[in-house]
Design a protein that fits this description.
The complex is a heterotetramer, with two copies of chain A and two copies of chain B. Helices cover about 20% and strands about 30% of the residues of chain A. By secondary structure, chain A is of the alpha+beta class. Chain A has a five-stranded mixed sheet with strand order 2-1-5-3-4. Classes of the chains: A alpha+beta, B alpha+beta.
């Protein structure tokens, strides 16, 4: 198992209660794995309209594989402008 | 030319205008987004904008470059405010200059549409009786 | 609200913005038309705007009212400069506010399109080697 | 015959050489009558892309009849904005 840390913004920070959250997962998980683990540990993420995962400051697709050293973030529905 | 800014200070329309103004361009279009005093029938007292700054700047730059190329614009400036704002404050300014005004209108509208869809900035509205993150829940 | 002005003094973007800004409106679109340094490959040194003022004001008001009604806008401001202008000077500012930004873009574009077609204002361009009334001859 | 005076702007002022021009026409002419007389006396008007006639500060249609006391103006192609 590996520890993967994600940055939390907006409502994601309210849900996890901190600016980052750590998940324990098998090495090189997919973005879908991350998403599922997150909802498992924090069911409130399942109540959001949606959320995306950013990998190295870009939107990640579901099949992408998370590598060691990647910068990851939870992106709840945006509302700028 | 592209200019991108995230700032916790007041945004200036004149400054945004100056960055796109050019003697070869006859048409400049600006979009200015301000804080409204109500949303879905509730009274808003103030609000807070949070951003994932490095990614927001990348996305803003990508959106501006895309609009510039697709609409053959001369310059695109995109300034977004972060931090605490009150009613009437300017949250965003988009300034676009072009030789052709039709392109300037289309390009400016595309930038604000894509910004609202993709840029990682989150708005928390404070009402008289509570607060919530806009768009987060159904 | 509608505000119409023909002026021989510099136009102010901030002043035009202030006339349409309102706490109920989230979206403001401005069009700013400036004097270009060239037209059809010729170098322009300066130019002169002449108007048939009472009719121009009537037409500007008619166009603003029409856009306001058709696009359900909150406010429309239309400021046009007259007299001698130099490169980079602002010739026209159109400011539109609306609850919906799509309407603000469409309304602002309609006002500048109709202004250029109908409002009795004439532009004389001065080149390095002469001058001519724009659009007058084929 | 009647004397009808029109205001001249832009290139119209250059063509007539003055801020107003007077035409002699039968009483109650149409806008088309005015237009034809103008081209007859100043053929340069025929070289313009087009020109309109304003009656009491509004664009007049071709069939409109010009009444005594109307304020008339020659409107060459506009170029504001």
């Amino acid at each position: 198992m590996e520890t993967i840390t994600l940055l939390c913004f907006g409502i994601a920070r309210d849900i996890t209660g901190a600016a980052t959250v750590s998940l324990h997962l098998r090495p090189r998980p997919t973005v879908t794995d991350l998403r599922q683990k997150l909802i498992e540990e924090y069911p409130a993420f399942g109540e959001l309209v949606s959320f995306a995962i950013a990998r190295n400051e870009e939107y990640a697709s579901e099949e992408e594989i998370v590598e060691n050293g990647d910068v990851l973030a939870i992106i709840p529905p945006v509302s700028g402008g | 030319m592209i200019e991108i800014k995230l700032s916790d200070q007041s945004l200036s329309i004149d400054k945004a205008y100056a960055t796109v103004q050019d003697p070869t361009c006859g048409g400049i279009v600006l979009f200015i987004g301000t804080i409204r005093n109500h949303n879905k029938g509730k009274t808003v007292t103030h609000l807070d904008f949070e951003s994932y700054a490095p990614m927001a700047l990348k996305e803003m730059n990508r959106i501006a470059e895309k609009a510039k190329t697709e609409h053959k614009l001369h310059a695109v400036t995109l300034h977004h405010r972060v931090g605490e704002l009150t009613i009437g404050d300017i949250a965003v300014i988009i300034a676009v200059s072009s030789h052709h005004r039709k392109a300037a209108f289309a390009g400016c509208e595309q930038v604000i549409d894509e910004l609202k869809e993709h840029v990682p900035i989150w708005k928390k509205e404070f009402l008289e009786d509570g607060s919530y993150w806009v768009n987060a829940r159904p």
